[in-house]
Amino acid sequence: MSIFRQIIYKGYVLLLMAFTIWYGSFMYFLIFGFEGKEKAAASIEALFSGEVAVPEEDLTEEERMFEQLLREQGARSETDLGFKVVDQPFIEGRFHHVGFRIQKDKASMCVRCHGNVPHNESKELRSFLNMHAFYLACEACHARTEEGEPAWEFGWYNKDNGDIVSNPVALVDIEEIYTSENADDIYPTYGNYGAKIAPGRQEGGEFKVLHGPKEIAFVEKYTEQQERLQPEKKSQMKTVIHRKVASEPVECDLCHTEEDPYFSFEELGYPPTRARELTNTAVVGMIRKYNEFYIPNFLSPGGQEKSEKE
Amino acid sequence: MGNIRLITTIVSVASFVFFSFITLNVQAAEDLNCFICHKHRGLSRIDENGDFRLFYINKELFDSGPHRRNKCKDCHTDVDRIPHDPAEKIDCTKECHITEPSSELKYSHQNVADILAQSVHSKLDADGNPKEYQEDYPGCKDCHEQPMYRPFSLYKGKKEPGVAPRGLSRCKGCHTEGDFAEDFYEHVTSRMHKTRLPIETIDLCAKCHEDPELIERHDMHDAVETYKETFHGKLVLMGSEKTPDCIDCHVIVGENTHLIEPQNALSSAVHKNNLSTTCRTSDCHSSASDRLSEFRVHVTYEMEEYPMEFYMLMFFKSLMVIVLYFFLIIIFFELMRRLFPNFAFFKDKNPDSTPVVPETKQ
Amino acid sequence: MAAYEPIIVKNGKRYFYRFSAHQRIQHVILFTSVIILALTGFPLRHTDEAWSKPLYDFFGGPDLAPTIHRLAGTVLLVLFVYHTLYWLVLFIQRSIIPLYREGRLNPWTALQAFGGQVMIPNGNDGRDLVDTFKFLFYISNKPSRSYTMSWREKFDYFAVYWGIPVIGPAGAVLWWRDEISHIVPGWVLNGAYIMHTDESLLAVLFLFFVHWYNVHYAPEKFPGATVWLSGYLSEPEMMHEHYSEYVQQMTEAGLAAEIKKQHFGV
Question: Which domain holds residue B244?
Fold first, then answer.
């Protein structure tokens, strides 16, 4: 028999031996996997040792809350109506159906640490601000131009890969629903554009967002290495990362206004009806009402948060 | 839909005529359209307990359930202006503006709450005293999400999900106004079968009955886990709709589904005197004898409680271990032997010496 | 039964007769039904695995798969009864009737004849077992020399022959639960459930490893033995597994001079 055949033969035998060992461990879990029958497992233990081990858990409330949150990660709720399946994330205590899965913003460097529900300080405003975080990049409000710098330009980036995209189709759909005859029977989706508005500048004839791939790579490097960074290096790097963050965010009525808005809805591809809606009557009216009657600091969220802190 | 808007408008105009200015201001919440904000998917925050609170309302899904005739304010009664403060918890037993047709009274879920109070899930014990660990007992929202209709059509013996245009057209002949026919069609057909798939019911019960903390605190059995080990449970997990879920066995036929009674209650569906009736309903094991109910559904394989099951399990496990590992070891060593085919500690000088004895053949 | 050549030569290689067409058909029915049973049964046994639902749906889901499972189970049970009858007929034809004709039929000779059956374990198997272990643990350099059926094949055979009467009736009880409940109480179903599910695991783990090792994975068999199709065993396989039988058949065929030496490995 040739050496070559001999090698193949022995190699195959070794492979089979490894397979045998794998099969032995695979079998073990099949035979003794009680599929949740812990009590039977405890009974076996008792049969051989004479005593039953009771697992002891002594967690503080915070620990328990934390464990619970970790457990809920990825939990789903599915309702099968026969003609349609409603698939959504499981949200504790939620009564109304959401009917969609929240899309991750993989292209934002801020979301990596701050999450996508970052606003929590101003009680009256946090939900509104988080709502805007769904289609506005953090920098859109939190990065202001320095004195002497030209104003930002604005564009859309894809939440999935960070590519610069034109105005989302969903926006155009909304316009079509508005103008269609049976508008009452169609349910438009707001704020779910798969893209976000972000500030940036024209570079070499191309629009580039303020926090592009370079900045994201930097944040990635930081999050990877922060374990082994010296504490003061950490602070230094964090300062650099947040260099563009302005102390005072952009106020509501800077955008929701007809006269010289912070960015132009039309230029971002908002269809005329929707753009009008955002810059006059409904939205602006509500902001005014809020400002006048309920929360005097409504228009300047930064100021509000500061006053709360004091 | 258009008609609902029309009715809404008529109602608002009527309100304007009949009620004072202040009332109108309260009404304003409805007219101002809650969806100006709540249509946005991102309307959300994290609350003090770390819970994610999403305030988005999916109008399309809301409109496919029985609550679609209610306005937001019917339930969220404390919201009287826009923008509003954090809303209070909902009381489902509150009367809402809808009229219950049979009694012509204002509709409320009080009936269901009363039935739930008689069940094992009641927050009060038999003497009316609060039970221990009040917060563990379920309220409406612990089991119910915003309900949605699950209509079906039955045409020439074929059951299909969704609204049947053929069926609906028959209603529409007489009931021409508004969405009345659609509402009734969906309402009635949803009630003619289970509005929840068995697997959804199991998952629902499992939220508490599979929670080790709750099981320990209330000294319960591993009801869901053990159910999943039965053929009922297994078929349900495979998506069967015909197999019984928790409610089918734990509620007496004809009773309201909220009336789940403890095993020791005389009227309970799982009391040992009633068990055989429960198993032998016309939809299930109708041809079985009453001794079928001696089948044990929730087998935990504990030595004391289920000795037969435990020792049978042990027997088969031991058999498996002995047989399988015996051959596994033989195969392993045989394979290893192939690596060193000619090695041996004690070599037979003449390995062919064993006489070959002819065997008598059949 | 059709006449057969004990040794045939094809392309210069010798092949040894082993299974009749009748037996091969029984084997095909056996493994077809067992594979179908395993495929329609195991999704239920392991509902929490990712593969269980797609596999079950492939067989028609809860509406159809149980029927397929029961059909295959019926086939297997019928085959079991048939095989027992088949063996009995052969036993009576070949052992009891000749004994009766010779006038030597009594309980003792009948028992002896039974013990002489090719599948019944006997003293040779004990010797082979000892030889096997001595060889495997490097105590001797002489592989075991089996006759027509090695002890491993006999174990394979009786594993199935014990398994079917355990799984089958338990499955039948679970199938006809309503009717059976008039005879036995419901807790018998609990026992039947354990018998059915755990014995099935044993059977499947055994078949897919031990049996498949013997006929598929083993180096001289890979990717698969052909004896179940042709009924004939090749010379290397014959020498490896049934050396005594090999020597005997060669001698009977007048080929004693061409008997090769026993070896192990390729």
Answer: 196-299
Give every residue of chain A whose pLDDT is below 70, as ranges: 1, 33-58, 281-282, 290-310
How far is CA C149 from its chain centroid?
Answer: 11
Burial profile B112-147: b = 16 or more Cβ within 10 angstroms, e = fewer: beebbebbebeeeeeeeeeeeeeebbbebeebebbb
C-chain residue closest to A36, CA distance? C48
The ipTM assigned to this model is 0.90
C51 in reach of chain A (CB within 8 A): no
Mean pLDDT of B93-106: 85
Q: Please indicate, yes or no, if residue A68 is contained in any of the structural domains.
A: no
Let me know whether B204 and B243 are in one domain: yes
Q: Which of A69, A49, A46, A74 is nearest to A59 (CA)?
A: A69
pLDDT given at position C178: 93
Write out pLDDT tens, residues B202-239.
999 998 898 888 888 888 888 898 899 899 999 999 99
- Does position B14 have pLDDT exceeding 60, yes or no? no
A 141-180 → B contacts, CB under 8 A: none
Domain count, chain A: 1
Please check whether residue C54 touches B, CB under 8 A.
no
pLDDT tens digit sequence for A279-303: 876 677 777 776 665 555 555 555 4
Contact: A35, C201; criterion CB under 8 Å: no
User: With an 8 Å Cβ cutoff, are A20 and B332 in contact?
Assistant: yes
Residue A26 lies in a domain: no
Same-domain check for residues B292 and B334: no
